[in-house]
Amino acid sequence: MYSDLKLFIDGKWLNGEGRKGEDVINPATGKxxxxxxxxxxxxxxxxxxxAQKGFQVWKNTSAYDRAKIMxxxxxxxxxxxxxxxxxxxxEQGKVYVESRAEVMTxxxxxxxYAEEGRRSYGRIVPGRTKGVRQIVVQEPVGVVxxxxxxxxxxxxxxxxxxxxxxxxCSIIIKASEETPxxxxxxxxxxxxxxxxxxxxxxxxGVPAQVSEHLIPSAIVRKVSFTGSIPxxxxxxxxxxxxxxxxxxxxxxxxxxxxxxxxxxEKAADTIAAFKYRNAGxxxxxxxxxxxxEASYSKFVARFTEYAxxxxxxxGLEKGITLGPLANPRRLDAMEAIVNDAKARGGKIATGxxxxxxxxxxxxxxxxxxxxDDSKIMTEEPFGPIAPIVPFKTFDEVxxxxxxLPFGLAAYAFTTSATTANAIGDAINSGMVGVNSVAxxxxxxxxxxxxxxxxxxxxxxxxxxxxxxxxxxSQA
Length: 475
What we know:
This protein has 475 residues and is α/β, with parallel strands linked by helices. The protein is built from 15 helices and 20 strands.
């Protein structure tokens, strides 16, 4: 059921063959799924050379023909969704229904970029003198080096792959070593769709060694990274030395504001389901809950009831609604957060401990009566812990919601159009969902501000991130 783990360089699949590597672990069982080969320095150089060669081929392929290959890849993803989804659940832990949704959305992203790439229009700017034509054109930026984390093994890579390919770029992607199988299967779909050799290359290895080899290369002209803020700053600094285009999608700590005029129980059902998706291991997961005093007790009760109703277990088993955390590091982080909360007077409404003696399971947790300077309120938890606190006034909650250096996502619930407009304007965040959690679609920009990064994926902004603007004045 699992993948045959390999590197993909210059159109060829490369297995261990004496390379160093590491085991991939099923977080629900702790058992080894397979052995992942690491790319050597020679492999990385081969990938760079292949990408350079592939770029020359791909940029000279018409947008029409690029789109045909990409749409074929999307069709193959849909045909193979069951296998890819099962691979993902085994290596990442999320329940099968979530894996399936991720895989199908990944196919939609490919399709959207395939079509949008055909509409990467330039424009004519009227000249100041007769006979002068002023032309603005969009050209692919060049070879892309992309780096993705373990929490969305196909969705995050495909945003970068599809955006780069639609623009006419070639790409080397280093996906997560903890969840490599689903990305291997994704890349197979592109290869089997007829993508020319070298246009898409997949490597794995020690993250720092791979990034510090690829990013300084003169061949690479664009870097795209999704991951932690400290690593993002380091990679951005490496890219800056070569004046390379960069997209950084980094961590967040998303506030949720529930006003008293909202339906507290309906809001709790909606946002709790979103909170515990992928065991809270989502960069746009709601992570700080501010509820206006009149609705606070009702919201907490309904939210806690939802959390208690979740069933933990292996995501491939029927009836399971919450899978394990991805690795033992997350278990340690959850325990540290809960211990800090207790030390600061926080009350555990439900959960708060590890679950079972096999795998990396942590109970869905709700904490109340917690101060704003506690660990859970100031640091991204990236796990199934929800702190819920009351607030009095609009101005007060805006100040508290905007108090952290993050700015990726935020959410609010209200039945007042006036309040909806006001909170959407007042929150400092790259994305804001008002009475909605649908802030990530193929056709809309996805990205943050402040410490949460810069640049966007998705939407026309995601395509433009892989293109250079050229102005031609012709007399």
